[in-house]
Amino acid sequence: MKLLKSLIIVLFLLLAAGCTQSKADIKEVSIDEAKQAFENNGEKPNNKTEQFSFYLPENYKVEKADKYNVILAKGAQRYILFVNENEEENSQVSYDTLVKQYENPFISKTFKKNDKLGYLFVHELDSKKYEVTVGIGGTKLTTETELKNIKEDARNMMIIVSSIQ
């Protein structure tokens, strides 16, 4: 009986270990998700501020908006959307600022399509929290999240940023 219990525990641990993704896998999948969202033709806006319109996926809401910033929420998680109307969609200023600010980012990847520059930049804050920023030109969206949520956040954030009109 003890042998059977031990065998079941070992099998459970092996299965659980096989279901978790490595940091390298999460990095690769997050880049792919952000790139796909960047390359798609953007969602039709379903929200509007005084300055611009944008799409919000289900479960996201606008908490506060002013001329250049919008605070978004999905449950307890907050996102800061910044739009610099003076920067073109091919501007690298926001991305270059992140690169200079943080050494050894977890992810630093750019995407190009037509005359647009998109990026995914992820910085490890501590062993449990990551700062995720996606952007296109002078528009960027930033949040703090856990490693396991980077992929989903990167995709949804790029969908939002890609939809801005």
TrEMBL record:
It comes from Metabacillus niabensis. This is DUF4367 domain-containing protein. Residues 1-24 form the signal peptide. Keywords: Signal. PROSITE patterns: PROKAR_LIPOPROTEIN. It comes from the Bacteria. The keyword Signal applies.
